[in-house]
Design a protein that fits this description.
Blueprint: H1 2-17, H2 30-39, H3 42-49, H4 55-65, H5 76-89, H6 93-100
């Protein structure tokens, strides 16, 4: 009985820590979501990011006034969208990570 219990615990531990299943598996990446917002209904981007037509102008001003730029994996537009989305929605890091993958 003890051997069975230890075996079951080892299998549970192995499945939990060694055979991980990917968590963020949406086909829509964060950058794709931002592109969809920019090309979609202006009210939708206003609801999600708090601004609509001025988003691209804001990005241009940000790059001209600071040294803000794309990082290795995240475009500047997505970085700003993440920031604005957090500010507007007041969601937790897990909820924002689910949206932006």
């Amino acid at each position: 009985m003890a051997v069975l219990s230890v075996t079951c615990q080892a299998m549970y531990y192995g499945n939990l820590y060694f055979f991980k299943q990917p968590y963020h598996t949406s086909v829509l990446s964060g950058q794709m979501w931002v592109i969809e917002l920019l090309g979609g209904n202006p009210r939708r981007i206003k609801d999600q990011l708090g601004m609509q037509k001025v988003f691209k102008m804001f990005i241009r001003k940000l790059t001209s006034m600071t040294n803000a730029s794309d990082t290795w994996h995240v475009a500047l537009e997505e970085q700003v969208a993440i920031f604005l989305y957090i500010i507007v929605t007041n969601l937790s890091n897990r909820k924002v990570a689910e949206c932006f993958q």
